[in-house]
Every structure is written in structure tokens, then in C-alpha cells.
Amino acid sequence: MKQLFVVQDQVASPKEVDDIFKKCYSHKMGPLETADLIGLDTVVNSLNVLYESYQDAKFRCCPLLIKMVEAGLTGRKSRKGFYDY
């Protein structure tokens, strides 16, 4: 998820990223809202499998996401991720 690097580098907030996708692309949910819904731990696991399988940098997991999961911030299931629930 390249959008996470934008948040990690403090170019935009999670809300700003999600608002762009909702307003510009007519998505019902932004990518970070969707990641919270799926579970950030699930996103990390999926990206790791893709990276190990293809060895392509586009599947590299963002360090911010790894730190969040290690801190127990897994999205809706922990009631905290990019947003509070």
C-alpha cells in the first residue's frame, strides 16, 4: 500500500488520503479505512506473502504499518488503527 508511505512521510494524514480516494475516485471507503476494516495484521501478512512470492518492491510493507501492528493497533478489531472505533 503505497498510500501508507505518504502518511509515514507526513505528506498527508490518513483522513486526507482517504478523502482523496472518496472524492476523486468515488470510492465508498478510502484505502486506509478499508485496511482498518480488513485488519492491519491481515494486510501485513498479505503483503509479506506477496513480497516473498514475487520479490517485487511494490509489495514491500511500510515500516509504519509494521510498527502499528506490533503495537497492537490492528484496526477495527482492536478499536484503533488509522482511526479510533
Give a short summary of the structure.
The chain is an all-alpha fold. It is built from five helices and no strands.
Give your account of this protein's structure.
58% of the residues lie in helices and 0% in strands. The protein contains five helices and no strands. The protein has helices at residues 3-8, 14-25, 31-38, 40-54, 63-70. The longest helix has 15 residues, at 40-54. The radius of gyration is 13 Å and the shape is globular.
Classification by helices and strands = mainly alpha
Order of helices and strands: HHHHH
Number of H- or I-type helical stretches: 5
Biggest sheet, open or closed, and with what strands and sense? none
| CA-based shape | globular
Mean pLDDT: 97
Helix percentage: 55-70%
- As residue ranges, the low-confidence spans are none
Rg over C-alpha atoms, rounded to the nearest angstrom: 13 Å
Number of strands: 0
Strand content: under 5%
N→C terminal distance: 22 Å
List keywords for this structure.
0% strand; mainly alpha; 5 helices; 85 residues
Layout of helices and strands, plus pairs?
Layout: H1 3-8, H2 14-25, H3 31-38, H4 40-54, H5 63-70
